[in-house]
Amino acid sequence: MAVLELRPAGLYCPAGDFYIDPWGPVDRAVLTHAHADHARRGHARYLAQRDALGVLLARLGPVSIDAVGYGEARTIGGARVSLHPAGHVLGSSQVRVEVDGETWVVTGDYKLDPDPTCIAFEPVRADVLITESTFGLPIYRWSPPDRLFAEIDEWWRGNAAQGRPSVVYAYAFGKAQRILAGVDATIGPIICHGAVEVLNRCYREAGVALPATLAPTGPARAADRAAGAGALVVAPPSAQSTPWLRRFPDASDAFASGWMQLRGARRRRSVDRGFVMSDHADWPGLLRAIEASGATRVYATHGYAASLARYLTDRGLDARTFETREFDAQYSGEQEEPALPGDGGAAVDAGGGAEAGGPPDA
Amino acid sequence: MREFAALYRALDSTTSTRARRTALAAYFSKAPPADAAWAVYFLCGGKPRQAVPIKLLRAIAAERAQVPDWLFEESYQAVGDLAETIALLLPPAIAGGSTVPLHEWVEQRLLRLRGTPAEAVAPLLNGWWDELDAHERFVWNKLITGGFRVGVSRQIVVQGLAEATGLPTQVLAERLTGDWKPDAAAWQRLVDPAEGAVPPGRPYPFFLAHPLAGPVEALGERSRWAAEWKWDGIRAQVVRRSGDTYVWSRGEELVTPRFPEVAAAAARLPDGCVLDGELVAWREGRVAPFALLQQRIGRTKLTAAVLGRAPVAFIAYDLLEYGGTDLRSEPFAGRRARLERVVAALGDPVVSVSPLVDAVSWQDLAAMRLEARARRVAGLMLKRVDSAYGIGRTRSGPAGDWWKWKIDPLSIDAVLVYAQRGHGRRASLYTDYTFALWHEGALVPFAKAYSGLTDAEIAKVDACIRQNTVEKFGPVRSVTPKLVCEIGFEGIAQSPRHKSGIAVRFPRILRLRDDKRIEDADTLEQLRTLAGALS
Fold it and tell me: With the C-alpha atoms ordered B130, B132, B135, B141, is the resulting torsion angle positive or negative?
């Protein structure tokens, strides 16, 4: 019997009778991270990493969550389960499941690039690895973060010198905080949309250092205009062309996403700038993580799974895809994440953990 | 190369015409003449002959990137542009940018690639890629593949040149036409402040009509308006000055050599005379389908066979200059009366006057408009009898002076059955669709359509396609029939080459029909009936 198998409600462990990031309601859910397409409401019990607790409670309401530290093992039925850093967002984990001496690891979403807002990815040895493959094509190769942030700073500084606001669209959870922690905060004030500010609070409570942020709410006032001059404004993509943004007339705008790697996707977004910034592994990152796991069997899920699996097969691994309609739908970038308590219901964070801009082919 | 790549990036990263003009002006005012000449050449759509066979280029790039052919192909499908795919796949660039000037990249390298033995090409390309940074590689690859398009119209290039040089745009536009040889001497002539400040062949800016949206009766009294057929051809001005003849298309492109029969007829016009009108395909004394005219447009060499197969005529509808006097501020009716005398004196069937459509009432005119399709015209033009000839799409007076009253497209409800990914801005989205109609209980494909949907609609259709894929054949997916769209088109013809037996002209999506089930879509028989009714 396999340690993990795909069931209608999601990835299931028969020995421990639990699911990993299930999409249907189940009795026990082990979560890789708190993005909406992984952490859903309606399960009876949750297991998640301690740092994810604040975000999960904010998003799921008062549910029963067993919060564990990285590397801390739990025995669930016949399975030994532990969580290990995935470097994707705060509290993101790979799930290691060991049954009768056989080890499977589910990476969840992950990246290898350093990120001051979460603990760095740690390779975990596995017999079988289930890896994400959102950017599973060799055209996806990220620049080093310092170069990326130098580019963002230069854009911000240029706009600030002209007294213009710089609006960057980024996912409210994870990407937004990574931008805050990475930019040169001495350039000017930083203003966050309510949907971002809620998560900033969670990050600060978890001990992550972020620069000071302002979060104006309600309709734009004359004073907001003055405050916006030279500011960096961080907002979720769904806030584009909403009344909240009217307080920043004449802003230069940008979109931060891995999909911005392609010229076509950048042009489709019709923003001034596209910053290639992803919390997912790029192609070399995927290959390095797979190699470091030592796994001889690999399943790829999400995005360009078929390409990655074929490439690994050519290199002598037993590689397959988990291709399901649910995964496809998750990554179509169509769904909207429900509004968070505390942001006044004014905005929603589109797509949860999925990166929008150009949905890949599964 | 560094400056030219930076220009490309500046043009590509904005949609603002003003920003593009400024970027062009900044480049042209600093670039050395030989570089500027090549920049003009490429920006105006110039293409040297294929430097490296595409297959060889792909093989060299895949090998350098250490990517198997199938993965190269998958990557290309996701990117939708070969030059960009190669730039993204090559090993990371180490060079900080090339100071070798653009003209050297082109003349010493690009142009010499052609005819180089295949085995010698790889080391050359690899060495040159090593000299460039990531962005320059993309631009260089664009030069190699010849797909250099940056979404800048010739007009914006001309405006950028005008801003850099202080010369009038029309002077620059005319100097740029014809054989533009991209070298330093040509650049000097282009920007020379002295030479031919008022070129003799200069056309007038075209006056353009607005589409009529409201009821035609709102234009007021019928007798205040002249009605003409709206011809399905190429808008053009014929200029006769200082003993020379010039034919200009609406894009301010000098097209005289492509229409020798029109130029020959117009050579007998009196000096100082400018006609505005339409170039149309002309056979057996009447307008022929636009498709015939297209055979002429695409040719660089006009052979006797092409001239015989696709003859062209000029239908004049305005007189802008006569006896060297600019008539544009005179009322339309007066210009038109004089035009009729000028053309009659010419006595050549290749140049005729667009007849007025005499329908007494708006109601009669509306009835005539329904005959447009049978007459092979696109509808009616309505011109206020006392209107001056304006500039561009300006509006003088609350009602406007010139209106185009086009016929509604033919339309049919069809089912989406295949989808293919788009290119460029739409790469990796499913934007190219094949539609089918019912025939004996099955769906038979009859047309492909690309345009017509908004970005939001495309996203919605794209998601639906991904969730309802039946099979994948390379870049094409077959889809469970679910979506009904209203497809508009301009004409129908029998076609043995199509599975449905029918070919439609200009198919496009008019709207998504979410309200219709696939059973409600139309049948092939209905399309055939439509074709029968029109032939």
Answer: negative
Q: Give the CATH number for residue B435.
A: 2.40.50.140
B428 vs A334, A358, A362: nearest CB: A358
Domain A5-140+279-323, CATH homologous superfamily name and number: Ribonuclease Z/Hydroxyacylglutathione hydrolase-like (3.60.15.10)
Q: What share of chain A is helix, strand, coil (3-state, %, to 5)?
A: 30, 25, 50
- In this prediction, residue A152 has a pLDDT band, given cuts at 50, 70 and 90, of very high
State the Cα–Cα distance between residues A196 and A234, nearest whole angstrom.
7
CB contact under 8 A, B88 and A332: no
Q: How far apart are CA B407 and CA B392, in angstroms?
A: 23
Please give the residue range of the domain that contains residue B491. 410-534
Q: Is A9 exposed, middle or buried (0-12, 13-18, 19+ CB in 10 A)?
A: middle
Other CB atoms within 10 Å distance of the CB of residue B239: 25
Task: Give me the helices (H) in A162-262, please.
Answer: 175-182, 194-205, 222-228
Longest CA–CA span in chain B (Å) reads 75
Cβ-defined contact of B428 to A329 (cutoff 8 Å): no
DSSP string, B301-318: S--HHHHHHS-EEEEEEE
Cβ atoms of A88 and A280 within 8 Å: the answer is yes
CATH code linked to domain A145-275: 3.40.50
Residues B376 and B503 in one domain: no
Give the separation between CA A101 and CA B85, rounded to whole angstroms.
Answer: 44
Domain count, chain B: 3
**pLDDT digits over B215-254, tens only?**
888 889 999 999 999 998 899 999 999 899 999 888 667 7
Confidence at residue A334, expressed as pLDDT on a 0 to 100 scale: 29
DSSP B110: I
- ipTM for the whole complex: 0.88
Q: Provide the residue ranges of all domains of chain A, joining segments of one domain with +.
A: 5-140+279-323, 145-275
Helix or strand or coil: residue A64?
coil
A324 half-sphere exposure, CB direction, 13 A CA radius:
14
Pick the residue from chain A with its C-alpha nearest to B423.
A264
Contact A267 B424 (CB under 8 A): yes
